């Protein structure tokens, strides 16, 4: 892989009229490609401007070589997400997977000369957002790793299971309390990474990994997810605001004790439900507000007197090509734009799932089995498409990162989804029509006239093809809308 850039300038240096930067890797100690990123493009553009104004070809090439060298030797930071990392473990960034059973050193060598330093920190946050983005930020899931999670390549454990928690109804008011603590950092030393200190050199030839774990931040995290069902008579934003104020008091209650609660708050708290995702070993997970206060109060002690109960939270990865140029390597990361597009697709599916669940819970859907059956079939249909979409992503990501395929392949998968009948607009239009078809008050009126009746308002969406029906009559509502009554054949 090489970089080619041709420039046409009008500066005084005639050599700069046609500049070609080719295969700079051959002029440096680097013998492998470097992951190209937006920052690389910015460096290249700034170099062009530098040349056009007062620079020289040699100074520009020097700056570019320095940048490429730094990128090739750059360590990566990734969230552990409950995965069993340990120092010296091999990691394949192409598939974001751990390589177990094979290391560069013997176990005894790994245990010796490990550097350790304290990293004491604890804090809490309140979050009322339910988006994938907000949950990813809470767990430091970024960039290419997020793409692996969205596609299902990465299986999460412990507190990271919070990433898989989704609202099941739009009528749920949700607020999350996050507790986070860190205790120490452990790192390999030059006794491991220095020249000639790698014992099992043949591992490089296997091509099974791209990086090695050289540092680990230990700690623990916990998420208390509080839900409150909001009825039609209640104001959603008002309930959510009260819930948020209530949850903010938990850290205070944990310090001052349960006696700080007022009587009316004790009554109100029983309306909330609680789900717990954490890296802590609990005898019983909290299910109520009172349980959550007691568990939150015990979290610092559960870390252990010396932090012995902590888990990896963040790891530092060193490219294997630094230790041996023949090792496998990460050729390119997935661009942020495509990761955001994939995330948006899955956010749309989550929203659609909630709408479908709410529709199936209505009195209408329960009293008319045919309607409930159609909604259930619709949900199964788009769930199957969602799974297929994720599987396609999971299949292509390792190949793209390893240089086997271009990123355009991923862009094509996203493009096909937008042009298919399963695009967000078509699916939501289908649900919009279903909601217009099934107003509970009107159906209750019709229930006295027909045993099995379906109120149908015509819609242009091709997804609305229904069973063959016989039109019985039509009526005009007080608002002037015409609704057609159909009895199933």
UniProtKB/TrEMBL annotation:
Transmembrane stretches, start-end: 34-55
Keyword Membrane: yes
Top-level taxon of origin: Eukaryota
Keyword Calcium among UniProt keywords: no
Occurrences of domain Stonustoxin-like helical (ranges): 345-438
Swiss-Prot/TrEMBL keywords: Membrane, Transmembrane, Transmembrane helix
InterPro entries per UniProt: Cytolytic_pore-forming_toxin, Stonustoxin-like_helical
Pfam families found in the cross-reference section: Stonustoxin_helical (PF21109)
Designated name of the protein: Stonustoxin-like helical domain-containing protein
Origin species: Seriola lalandi dorsalis
